[in-house]
Each structure stands twice: as structure tokens, then as C-alpha cells.
């Protein structure tokens, strides 16, 4: 992780105008490294996210004996070791800040013949992992944690796994994916039946690399004993990253941003639907399919927003984008009500509490609930200046960087180094869009 740094954001002095690409999808980049590593043959990955989280996953696969080359930024050539070709490491496997990496790797490593220890940074070490470790234990895995289900995770190898039918108590693509990865090594069928459908990146990539799998929204089923073959993987632009310039264009008057090659997986774009319901002017241009994933260019224009009751059935399709939604709600006329988002309490930070405190600092009225908040917008008055603690959460830092554009005075955003985990180059891109954003004590 980079050294701690703060940003200073100032009110936008004019419209934001740009034609931009956002970094590659983080979720797909993680999965590409893992599945290519256990495939037969060579896989070329295009559009790989050059973030700290995804690089940590790639480094772990190398630590497990997989040869990976980097011919250029955003490109990886992975020489697959096959389903049983990974080699144990005597040293811990450091996931950094990557919750996705740790949870998926727990499933992948549960079926190996060797012992493994997964560690993470201070933030990740505070994130509970029982949602993954408990059902994996039901499959026969032997995983120990610190009290409270916290990392490090110690995974005992050589345990025979068996398929189960699992009904997750809450929607989580990470839990589903961890069980499917363990299911590759299990005897019999692994079946996941979800209350609310979650993103299906793992299912799509398994299918693309040749593993027999049946899936539809809310359901996935595979049987162990098959194999994966290498191929070409194209990683689309990350919708979660696109959410930040999208928000900026929506809330700064006169703005127009064109975001090219954004992934529009139907289980990922809940924010798009919710923002449109709030009055957002977001136009989908040149929709297409690339390597099994829906991709399009997004043209975003400034538009006045109004508060809504966010449909609970959309929550699981936008769980990573709620910091953006909170700022959009603060810029909207009326009240926006969010419920069913208890998972936000256990992300990189307690995002409900952190966003609520930050918005109150900027003069916004927010009432928290256990699983959401009521946010009363102040579109005419704009925000106050102030000092915001991001709690080392990359999405909170970027969301308040956008909020500063609508403030009446400077906003200091503390502890922004983690932004490199998901959006390397964000600061430079934001300045190119037209935001007035600087490193505290210096300039970009």
C-alpha cells in the first residue's frame, strides 16, 4: 500500500468535458488470474486492471508456481499450471486490501493438496470471512481464522471436498464464486441458489474457458472433475470505476463525459437503473458483446436529480456503488431512502456510517438505519467545505472528491492512498475531466 496521503478538492469552475476510458474491471481481473492459472495452456488477458488489489492476486498465483508475463501495461500472459498444478508456498499469501481476492482464493485453495495462509493489510484483517469459511467447511474444507472469523485464514490442504446445495443468507457474488471454485475440486455437484441474483462473472468465465456449468440469474451448478483450457480474456472497463466520472458529469452543470468500453453485466448495473430513476441523463452508445460480457460506451450529461426510494431488489446489483449513490442523493431534490444494504457495514469500512458522517460534515441531513439511510439533498445550496475521513476506503475517497466539485469551499479528503487498489491514475484523470483536485500540499 502507498504512503498515506490527503487530497484537497475545490468547487468546479466550469463544466466537465472529456472522452475517457476507465480502468479494467477489478472483479473480472481477479477471476482471470485465478482461472487462467489453473487452466491447461496459455491465456492472454487484455485490459487487466493495474491496481494494487489485482496485482496482489497475480503475485499470489506466481507465488503458487504459475508463470505470468507482463508484455505491456494492462496485458498478462498466464501459463496455466492445470487444475492440480499449483505449488504450495511456505510464506503467507498476501492479499493486500483485496477482499474479493481473499474470499475467492479461499475457495480455490480449499481444494489443494497443500496448506496455505491468506493474509491482508490492516483494513482487510478487520473484515469477517465466515460467510465464506462456514459453507466451505460444509463442503469439507478445514479453515481456521482469528476470533470473529477474521484473517489470517489458515487453509489445510489435502481435505476431500464434496458438493453441496447452498442457499446464501444474503446476496454475495464473492461467496458464490468461492464455492464454485471449491466445487471444481469437489466430488458431486455444487449448487448455489440465491435469494437475489448476483453478478455472474465467475460463471461466464468458467464457461468461456470450457468448464461445463449451468447458470441463470440466482442459480449456478457445476460438477467437479472437468478441466479448463487457456484462451483470450478481454476485461471490459470497470462499471464501479465508471460510476465516479458518471457522478461528476451528472452533478456539475453543463458537463458531458463519454466513457468508452464500460462493462454492463446485467448483475452489475443497478446504479445505472437507479440513477436513471432519479432523472439522470445517461445514454448507452454502441452496445456490444466482448468475450461473453456486455460492453457499451456511456454518454453522460448533467441533469437535475430527484430523490427516490431505492428498490431493495436492486441493492445486490450495486453494492459497490453506494458511496456514489449517497453523493448523488445529496445532490438531488428531496429525500432518497436506502434499505437492504446491511452488507455496507462490513466493506473496506462501515460505508453507511462513513458516508453519513462525511455528508453531515458537508451540511447534508442524513438519518442512518441499520441497513441504509435517508438522505435529504441540498441541490440549490451546494455543500459546505470541511474535513472528510475516508477511513482508507477507496470508494469513499473518490466519492467525496466528486462531492467537492459541488461544495462552496475546499474539502479535504483524508487517507486516499487506497484509491490505487481499484483506480490507478484517478487523480490525473479527474483533473483532465475538469475537477479541481490536488494532493494536499502540492499539485498533480
Fill in the keyword field for this structure.
UDP-n-acetylglucosamine1-carboxyvinyl-transferase, Chain, 444 residues, 4-stranded mixed sheet, alpha+beta, 23 strands, 12 helices
Structural summary, described in words:
This protein folds into 2 domains: 221 residues, UDP-n-acetylglucosamine1-carboxyvinyl-transferase, Chain; 209 residues, UDP-n-acetylglucosamine1-carboxyvinyl-transferase, Chain (Alpha-beta prism). The chain is built from 12 helices and 23 strands. Strands 21-22-1-23 form a 4-stranded mixed sheet. Strand 19 and strand 20 form a beta hairpin. The chain starts with 6 loop residues before the first strand and ends in a 5-residue tail after the last strand.
Instruction: Report the mean per-residue pLDDT as an integer.
Output: 94
The name of the CATH superfamily of the largest domain reads Enolpyruvate transferase domain
Strand order of the largest sheet: 21-22-1-23
Under CATH, the topology of the largest domain is which? UDP-n-acetylglucosamine1-carboxyvinyl-transferase, Chain
The total of helices stands at 12
CATH architecture of the largest domain: Alpha-beta prism
List low-pLDDT spans.
none
In whole angstroms, how far apart are the ends? 20 Å
Number of strands: 23
Shape: globular
**Class based on secondary structure composition and strand pairing:** alpha+beta
Number of domains: 2
User: Biggest sheet: strands, sense, closure?
Assistant: 4 strands, mixed
Estimate the strand proportion: 25-35%
Report Rg: 21 Å
Helix content: 25-40%
- CATH class membership of the largest domain: Alpha Beta
Amino acid at each position: 500500500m502507498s504512503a498515506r496521503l490527503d487530497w484537497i478538492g475545490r468547487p468546479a469552475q466550469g463544466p466537465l468535458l472529456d472522452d475517457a476510458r476507465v480502468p479494467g474491471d477489478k472483479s473480472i481481473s481477479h477471476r482471470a488470474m485465478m482461472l487462467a492459472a489453473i487452466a491447461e495452456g496459455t491465456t492472454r488477458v487484455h485490459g487487466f486492471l493495474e491496481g494494487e488489489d489485482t496485482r496482489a492476486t497475480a503475485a499470489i498465483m506466481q507465488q503458487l508456481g504459475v508463470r505470468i508475463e507482463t508484455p505491456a501495461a494492462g496485458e498478462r500472459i498466464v501459463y496455466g499450471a492445470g487444475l492440480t498444478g499449483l505449488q504450495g508456498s511456505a510464506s503467507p499469501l498476501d492479499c493486500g486490501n483485496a477482499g474479493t481476492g481473499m474470499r475467492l482464493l479461499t475457495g480455490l485453495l480449499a481444494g489443494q493438496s497443500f496448506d496455505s495462509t491468506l493474509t491482508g493489510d490492516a483494513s482487510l484483517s478487520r473484515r469477517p470471512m465466515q460467510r465464506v469459511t462456514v459453507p466451505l467447511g460444509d463442503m469439507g474444507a478445514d479453515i481456521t481464522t482469528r476470533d470473529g472469523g477474521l484473517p489470517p485464514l489458515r487453509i489445510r490442504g489435502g481435505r476431500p471436498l464434496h458438493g453441496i446445495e447452498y442457499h446464501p443468507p444474503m446476496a454475495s457474488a464473492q461467496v458464490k464464486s468461492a464455492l464454485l471454485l471449491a466445487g471444481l475440486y469437489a466430488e458431486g455437484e455444487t449448487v448455489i441458489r440465491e435469494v437475489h441474483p448476483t453478478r455472474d462473472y465467475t460463471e461466464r468465465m468458467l464457461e468461456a474457458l470450457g468448464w461445463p456449468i449451468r447458470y441463470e440469474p440466482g442459480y449456478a451448478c457445476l460438477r467437479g472433475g472437468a478441466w479448463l483450457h487457456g484462451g483470450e480474456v478481454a476485461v471490459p472497463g470497470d462499471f464501479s470505476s465508471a460510476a465516479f466520472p458518471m457522478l461528476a458529469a451528472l452533478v456539475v452543470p453543463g458537463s458531458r463525459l463519454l466513457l468508452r468500453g464500460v462493462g454492463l453485466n446485467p448483475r452489475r448495473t443497478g446504479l445505472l437503473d437507479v440513477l436513471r430513476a432519479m432523472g439522470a441523463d445517461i445514454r448507452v452508445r454502441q452496445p456490444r458483446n466482448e468475450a461473453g460480457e456486455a460492453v457499451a460506451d456511456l454518454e453522460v450529461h448533467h441533469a437535475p436529480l430527484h430523490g427516490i426510494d431505492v428498490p431493495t431488489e436492486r441493492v445486490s446489483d450495486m453494492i459497490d456503488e453506494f458511496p456514489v449513490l449517497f453523493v448523488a442523493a445529496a445532490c438531488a431534490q428531496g429525500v432518497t431512502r436506502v434499505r437492504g444494504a446491511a452488507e455496507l457495514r462490513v466493506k473496506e469500512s462501515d460505508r453507511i456510517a462513513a458516508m453519513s458522517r462525511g455528508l453531515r460534515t458537508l451540511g447534508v441531513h442524513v438519518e442512518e438505519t441499520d441497513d441504509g439511510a435517508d438522505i435529504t439533498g441540498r441541490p440549490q445550496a451546494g455543500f459546505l467545505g470541511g474535513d472528510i475521513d475516508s477511513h482508507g476506503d477507496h470508494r469513499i475517497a473518490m466519492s467525496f472528491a466528486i462531492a467537492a466539485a459541488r461544495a462552496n469551499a475546499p474539502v479535504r479528503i483524508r487517507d486516499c492512498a487506497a484509491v490505487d487498489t481499484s483506480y490507478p491514475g484517478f487523480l490525473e484523470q479527474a483533473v483532465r475531466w475538469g475537477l479541481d483536485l490536488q494532493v494536499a500540499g502540492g499539485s498533480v
